[in-house]
Structure formats: C-alpha cells, structure tokens
Amino acid sequence: MKSVSQKREEVAPKQPLTLGWYVLRVISGREKRACQYIENEVARLHYEEFVPRVLVPVEYLVQQRNGKRVRKERVLYSGYLFVEALMTKEVAHMLRNATDVLGFLLSERKKEGEEEKPEPLTEAEVKRMLHTCLLYTSPSPRDRQQSRMPSSA
Q1: Each residue of 88-121: pLDDT tens digit?
Q2: Is 73 helix (H, G, I), strand (E, B) or coil?
Q3: Contact at 8 Å (CB) between 137 and 54?
Q4: What share of the chain is helix, strand, coil (3-state, %, to 5)?
Q5: CA dihedral 15, 52, 135, 31 (to 10 degrees)
Q6: pTM score above 0.90
Q7: In this structure, are residues 50 and 86 in contact, taking their beta carbons and an 8 Å threshold?
C-alpha cells in the first residue's frame, strides 16, 4: 500500500497549476448527495489540498403552509455542482467517476482521439456565483453533534 507522501508525488503536477472553479453535471435532485460523496472521497484519498471546496448554491424561500410559515431550501442551479480544484488527471478522474456525477461542463467538445479537458470558470462567473447565492456544503461531524445537543432555553 502506498503512503500519503507517495500518493502526493504521483498526483503532484509537473508544472505549477492554480486552483480553478469547475462545474460538474450531476443527476438532478441529487446535488447534495453527490457533494457529500465527493467530499468523503477527497478525505479518503487525502486530496484536501487539490480539492478544497465542493459547493451546491442554494436559496431559502419562505412559504405559507396550513397557515404557518415554512422555510424551504431550493437548489439554485439544479443539476450542477461547483468544485474548486487543482485539476490533475487523477483529480479529474476521481470527480468524473463519482457517484451521481454525469461529467464536467465543457466549453469545447472533445475531438476524435483527444482527452476531455474541463475548462475552469472565469473570474467574473465565479464572483457572480459566490455573491448571488448561499452555499451548501455538507455538514461536518462537529455540526451534527451540536445540532443533537439540547438547547439551554
């Protein structure tokens, strides 16, 4: 079995790369599930420095149901996940083959015999996405423990 340092040497790019935001197409309605799966895979493979964030943009709506106000969460871009990643072949393979993931949103179609290369979002697109919506990241174990604790009210 390979050690973590050996895995990092294999995954480390030969030329310096920068983090970029990529869009993954996922099965509609399973965005949060895919987000949690990818975050678990990143932790299992020790790729935290290659994939620091996986986000599902959501918005909160307040609706009236049976005379009561109900706060409902709605996914803003249904069928898509946003991933901040240092894109190497291994990271792209892990993301592309994750459960509920259909593939990357590509700007150009793959030509015969060429490898699929995902294109990062532009800076303007990233700013617009981050500033116009709330972001869902899967809850950490610490958050789950705090939500189970009884309130002191």
Answers
A1: 999 999 999 999 999 998 766 666 666 677 889 9
A2: strand
A3: yes
A4: 30, 25, 40
A5: 90
A6: no
A7: yes
